[in-house]
Specification:
By secondary structure, the chain is of the alpha+beta class. Among the domains are: 123 residues, Butyryl-CoA Dehydrogenase, subunit A, domain 2; 123 residues, Four Helix Bundle (Hemerythrin (Met), subunit A), CATH 1.20.120. Helix content is 54%, strand content 12%. It contains 17 helices and 11 strands. Strands 3, 4, 5, 6, 7, 10 and 11 form a 7-stranded mixed β-sheet that branches. The chain has a two-stranded antiparallel ribbon with strand order 1-2. Strands 8-9 form a two-stranded antiparallel ribbon. A hairpin with a 2-residue loop joins strand 1 and strand 2. Helix 12 packs parallel to helix 15. 53% of the residues are buried.
């Protein structure tokens, strides 16, 4: 079964759920009107379905490999990457000054969703480049921008981010990579980085690494870290790739999934680098890239969920096993299989709406400068990342379940979605860290943004009672329960908040998802949107009650168990 890009879902969400139209009313996004948006969605859908999706299986069966110091990518990946680059897709949301289209991040998020559903391993390459473009736009000096941005935007060169080291994972401040000043204003970068996605390849002519390192006078911890551009091939006077820099791929990781994406261990041995941003300001610059990537990774999870769902749906329509209540039809007529498929689709719609609403908020913050939009974007980002990737894992696992025993057989392809999705809750900040960020930094305003969102949900539910009374009442009640839990959470010490952070984030996502489904049901009553809303509100939303019970438990009982108590006797 081939992947079909869900273009109609994006149209509906933009038109009826996340108020995408307000973007084209701003000066910054005046070009992002209905015609341009439709053209972008249609063409991205075609590229994803017809060009990228056929590469997905080859990437899994024939992984990227390291041969004599050179990384060889999976069959067809170079041509697939060229189609992405030549179509201008990498620079979709990049600034027009250096060749980008300057279109909204929300639209780019939809495109990334479709490309991830088609072939996640390949889509990772342009996603990282997009993040690097944004970091340079905000923090690079004019010389760096002029040299790198046109080539990254065009896809001639690709970008990576280098944070993690063997001893410094989530604790980035523990890194040991050194940056020693050279006489010519550059720096000699020495150290080892791990988990470097698309750290080397043969699909583009240069690889540009953003590397976190510490200057000789850099303080301990994250405040002493600086950011450097370290290209694989040092540009010559004309800006063409020149001599090889002093860096190499030590090895490629053998992974559970995303086999077509080369994940490198990188070694820098006095490699020449150029500072990006201010000395000791590396984390601020890198977080610009990571925040872009967090929404992108949320979209990756949703994209893989979509592909897994489509795969399972096709199988359920064909597979006959036992007599169903509707006769001797396919297994889709069994109640439990119908339940799984309905919930999978409802979950995808809700997670996708969260991601697109987050994208619209980021765009409106940029276009208007309004703090209210920036606060909304900041609050939604950890939810979009964590929930989107959790749903990617859960829906792809459910896809294996729909297949039954055949889902456990690699030849069916169902397991690949499950394996590929599993990394997404881990990278770009684990989902536990996203949840801690939500109840920590994002609550430093005293819960103002959380309450504002909840008020929006309750006000809409009040209005919706006239046409969707049953659904509206359930959504209003869930939002009120979440409001009470938020008030309780704000009165707790930070570690108690952290203990309940993951269930709190998920509960918030559940209520947001119900809100978006309610909006969809009102926009399209008596159709599939209303039917999906009923599935979500009656079968998925009630989960929030148990989640909030976990939130209120705080840290009670967790530290009563010592590490020794957790040992298996």
């Amino acid at each position: 079964m081939s992947y079909k890009a869900p273009v109609s879902d994006f149209r509906f969400l933009f038109d009826h759920v996340v108020d995408y139209a307000q973007l084209s009313a701003t000066e910054l996004f005046a070009e992002a009107g209905p015609d341009v948006t439709e053209q972008i969605l249609t063409e991205a859908g075609r590229l994803s379905s017809e060009v990228l999706a056929p590469l997905n299986r080859a990437g899994d069966l024939t992984p990227a490999r390291l041969e004599n110091g050179i990384v060889r990518t999976s069959p067809g990946f170079a041509a697939g990457y060229r189609a992405i680059a030549e179509g201008g897709w990498i620079g979709l949301a990049a600034g027009t000054e250096y060749g980008g289209m300057g279109l909204p991040l929300a639209l780019n998020t939809a495109v990334n969703d479709m490309m991830s559903g088609a072939c996640l391993s390949l889509q990772l390459c342009p996603l990282l480049t997009q993040g690097q473009i944004e970091a340079l736009e905000h923090h690079g000096d004019d010389t760096l921008k002029a040299l790198y941005l046109p080539r990254l935007t065009s896809g001639e060169w690709t970008g990576t981010m280098n944070l993690t080291e063997p001893q410094a994972g989530s604790d980035v401040g523990a890194l040991r990579t050194r940056a020693t000043p050279n006489d010519d204003g550059t720096y000699a970068i020495t150290g080892q980085k791990i988990y470097i996605t698309w750290g080397d390849h043969d699909v583009a002519e240069n690889v540009c690494h953003l590397v976190l390192a510490r200057l000789p006078d850099g303080a301990a911890g994250t405040r002493g870290i600086s950011l450097f551009m370290v290209p694989k091939l040092i540009p010559d006077a004309e800006g063409n790739p020149g001599e090889r820099n002093s860096l190499r791929v030590v090895s490629l990781e053998h992974k559970l999934g995303i086999h077509g994406s080369p994940t490198a261990v990188m070694e820098y041995d006095g490699a020449k680098g150029w500072m990006v941003g201010k000395p000791h300001g590396g984390m601020a610059a890198m977080f610009t890239m990571m925040n872009n990537a967090r929404l992108g990774v949320g979209a990756q999870g949703i994209g893989v969920a979509e592909a897994a769902y489509q795969h399972a749906l096709a199988y359920a329509r064909d597979r006959r096993q036992g007599r169903t209540p509707l006769g001797d039809g396919a297994i889709i007529d069994h109640a439990d299989v119908r339940r799984m498929l309905a919930m999978m689709r409802a979950e995808i719609f809700a997670a996708r709406a969260i991601a697109l609403d987050c994208g619209v908020a980021i765009d409106m913050g940029r276009a208007t400068g309004a703090q209210a939009w920036k606060a909304r974007a900041a609050f939604l980002t950890p939810i979009a990342k964590a929930h989107g990737t959790d749903i990617g894992c859960e829906v792809s696992s459910q896809g294996v379940q729909v297949y039954g025993g055949m889902g456990f057989i690699e030849e069916t392809g169902a397991a690949q979605f499950f394996r590929d999705a599993r990394i997404t809750p881990i990278y770009e900040g684990t989902n536990g860290i996203q949840a801690m960020d939500l109840v920590g930094r994002k609550m430093m305003d005293g819960g103002e943004e959380a309450f504002r969102l909840l008020q929006e949900i309750e006000d809409h539910a009040e209005t919706a009672r006239a046409s969707q009374s049953e659904l509206a009442e359930s959504v209003w009640s869930a939002a009120e329960s979440l409001r009470e839990a938020t008030e309780w959470l704000l009165g707790q010490e930070m570690n108690a908040r952290f203990a309940g952070a993951v269930p709190y984030l998920r509960a918030f996502a559940r209520v947001l998802g119900a809100h978006y489904h309610l909006r969809a049901a009102i926009a399209a009553p008596d159709g599939v949107r209303e039917k999906l809303a009923r599935v979500y509100v009656t079968r998925i939303l009630p989960e929030h009650e148990g989640l909030l019970a976990q939130v209120r438990a705080g840290e009670a009982g967790l530290y009563d168990l010592s590490p020794e108590d957790l040992d298996v006797a």
